[in-house]
């Protein structure tokens, strides 16, 4: 019997070690991707850090823009810029990726440790599956990684105080809060967590509050965290900044959107995992509340409720939900797991021994099966594996610098930080990806209208006399895409550079004729200039298709898609692109082909409202009215607020069609 127990213990221990390694390796695998500098904020953070390190001061105004240089703006993550800059000087871009991986693995390891120690190993392990899916939404190198780190540390020290109330380790949180307040705007989370923990102890010890040492410590800590947060370059303004930042926020960005909105625009496994995790968390609290007399999870409930609401409001808050979800569900279901264990022991001893080994093995198999999703190419179709910078990250800026091209530059929102990194202070930007650093009116009455309205564009162009237009070629907004296509079709501007990341146009003026003659991209020579993109990964090849589409070479783009289709026959995005490209020809045969391609794309998972909207239009132009109506109705079934489908159906009814 002694040998059997030893063998059982060894199997259990080996399985647990293997599962922990697998979980951490799976998370590390999704963190190990390159920095896409043209669209990341990192370039601006590095420039911030360099300026602060050299001048020993933090800017109080916009600084980088020639449009709003004097607009007051708080750099709420100034210390992150300094940290990134100093690390970059020592270890470069590759080292920064490794630093991010190590830091975020430490965060997850600490939260997993808390979940296992205070909860149940197998519940924590299984809960890691949706948690990592949720965390996959935010894997870039940003100042927010420090907020994840401090959230985990606060959890650890608060629970440590509960286990060791006589110890004073909890006061390490005060200097940590000082760092947090200067590293990232989410520093208030530490104050909120302490307040929640204090509230739980007040309710739990409400009959013996007087001279309670635990409550005294937490009260002192709470007040100290608020006070220490005032030590920053902006004083009380930064302390209150989280409450005020959206009062002047004129530009909508994806990370600030609700998952309910985004689920109709893209397929995102993090959104599905978030919904599943919320449902599981609610169920776990039913088990927890049944034990109210012996276990009162007030802190966990408040933290779970807060992060759930935050996640439903903005997708950027997903990681904070995941970091609370993991310990919450493990702790809530701990007793339920113990009861299952007791029930197994009551069963016949032989059956019980088999189950004790079989169940962990089955659970391990489930974890391997699900996590294997991240170990194939699927997750990395929009990211490049490895460390350092993505393909052609610096190429467009190097071209601009080499050719000594001068502004003023009209750039799009996404590429602003990149241009700051490469060109400041010689050139300033029109806009960059800091909505709070520009007046709301700037976006409402300048930046957006000039891309939507030709007359406004001409007026603003006359005001600033732009010499360069510099856009990310995968500009994500309809107005940006429309504007770029119009400029490419306009003889007043000449495209002189295009790659998988960016497009540069120069004004067709007498002073620029030499550079135009040397580098101008035309419909005739575009394929020769970008043919090298075919030798790269799926994403970069699709970038090549997009470039051909931008310059109105739909025929070449379609041919390129057909080649891709042979390599990736089950990739819905290729079928979708072929459907859109074929519809541009607008004849009977091409429309019939387009409908078939879009139907195939839907079959392969591209079943989004926009796809059904387009398919309905094609059916309508083919005279297949009932199919058109059905497609638009399906778009509304997916998203009841889809305005395009509503408008199409309204026009359909006005025509008295069947």
UniProtKB/TrEMBL annotation:
Transmembrane segments: 15-32, 82-113, 143-159, 179-199, 220-241, 270-287, 294-314, 320-337, 357-375
Superkingdom of the organism of origin: Bacteria
Alphabetical keyword list: Membrane, TPR repeat, Transmembrane, Transmembrane helix
TPR repeat intervals: 609-642
Signal peptide: none
Keyword Transport: no
Keyword Calcium: no
Protein name per Swiss-Prot or TrEMBL: Uncharacterized protein
């Amino acid at each position: 019997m002694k040998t059997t127990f030893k063998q059982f213990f060894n199997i259990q221990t080996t399985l647990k070690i293997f599962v922990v390694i697998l979980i951490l390796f799976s998370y590390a695998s999704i963190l190990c991707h390159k920095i896409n500098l043209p669209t990341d904020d990192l370039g601006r953070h590095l420039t911030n850090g360099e300026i602060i390190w050299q001048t020993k001061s933090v800017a109080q105004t916009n600084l980088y823009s020639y449009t709003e240089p004097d607009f007051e703006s708080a750099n709420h993550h100034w210390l992150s810029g300094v940290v990134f800059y100093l690390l970059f000087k020592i270890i470069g871009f590759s080292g920064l990726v490794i630093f991010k991986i190590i830091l975020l693995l430490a965060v997850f390891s600490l939260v997993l440790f808390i979940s296992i120690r205070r909860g149940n190993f197998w519940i924590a392990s299984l809960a890691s599956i949706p948690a990592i899916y949720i965390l996959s939404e935010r894997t870039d190198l940003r100042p927010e990684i420090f907020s994840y780190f401090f959230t985990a540390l606060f959890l650890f020290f608060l629970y440590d105080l509960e286990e060791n109330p006589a110890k004073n380790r909890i006061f390490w949180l005060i200097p940590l809060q000082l760092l947090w307040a200067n590293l990232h705007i989410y520093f208030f989370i530490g104050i909120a967590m302490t307040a929640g923990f204090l509230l739980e102890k007040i309710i739990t010890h409400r009959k013996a509050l007087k001279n309670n040492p635990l409550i005294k410590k937490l009260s002192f800590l709470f007040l100290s965290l608020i006070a220490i947060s005032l030590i920053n370059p902006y004083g009380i303004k930064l302390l209150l900044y989280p409450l005020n930042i959206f009062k002047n926020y004129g530009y909508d960005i994806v990370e600030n959107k609700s998952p309910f909105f985004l689920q109709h625009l893209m397929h995102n496994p993090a959104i599905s995992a978030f919904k599943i995790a919320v449902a599981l968390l609610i169920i776990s609290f039913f088990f927890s509340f049944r034990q109210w007399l012996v276990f009162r999870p007030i802190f966990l409930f408040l933290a779970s409720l807060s992060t759930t609401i935050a996640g439903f409001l903005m997708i950027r808050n997903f990681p904070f939900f995941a970091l609370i979800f993991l310990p919450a569900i493990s702790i809530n279901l701990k007793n339920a797991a113990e009861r299952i264990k007791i029930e197994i022991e009551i069963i016949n001893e032989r059956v019980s021994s088999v189950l004790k080994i079989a169940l962990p093995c089955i659970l391990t198999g489930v974890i391997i099966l699900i996590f294997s999703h991240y170990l194939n190419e699927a997750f990395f179709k929009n990211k490049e594996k490895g460390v350092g910078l993505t393909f052609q990250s610096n190429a467009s800026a190097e071209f601009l610098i080499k050719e000594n091209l001068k502004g003023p530059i009209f750039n799009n929102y996404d590429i602003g930080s990149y241009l700051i990194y490469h060109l400041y202070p010689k050139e300033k930007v029109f806009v960059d990806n800091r909505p709070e650093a520009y007046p709301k009116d700037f976006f409402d009455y300048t930046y957006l209208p000039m891309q939507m309205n030709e007359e406004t564009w001409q007026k603003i162009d006359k005001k600033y006399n732009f010499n360069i237009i510099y856009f990310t070629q995968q500009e994500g907004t309809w107005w940006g895409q429309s504007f770029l296509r119009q400029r490419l079709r306009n003889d007043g501007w000449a495209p002189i550079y295009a790659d998988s990341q960016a497009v540069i146009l120069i004004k067709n003026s007498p002073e620029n004729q030499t550079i135009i003659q040397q580098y101008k991209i035309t419909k005739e020579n575009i394929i020769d200039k970008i043919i090298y993109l075919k030798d790269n990964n799926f994403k970069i090849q699709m970038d090549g298709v997009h470039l051909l589409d931008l310059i109105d070479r739909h025929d070449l783009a379609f041919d390129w898609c057909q080649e891709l289709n042979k390599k990736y026959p089950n990739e819905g995005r290729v079928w979708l692109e072929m459907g859109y490209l074929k519809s541009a020809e607008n004849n009977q045969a091409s429309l019939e082909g387009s409908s078939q391609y879009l139907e195939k794309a839907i079959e392969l998972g591209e079943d989004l409202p926009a796809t059904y909207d387009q398919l309905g239009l094609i059916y309508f132009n083919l005279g297949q009215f009932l199919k058109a109506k059905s497609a638009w109705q399906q778009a509304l079934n997916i998203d009841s607020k889809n305005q395009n489908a509503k408008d199409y159906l309204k026009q359909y009814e006005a025509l008295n069609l069947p």
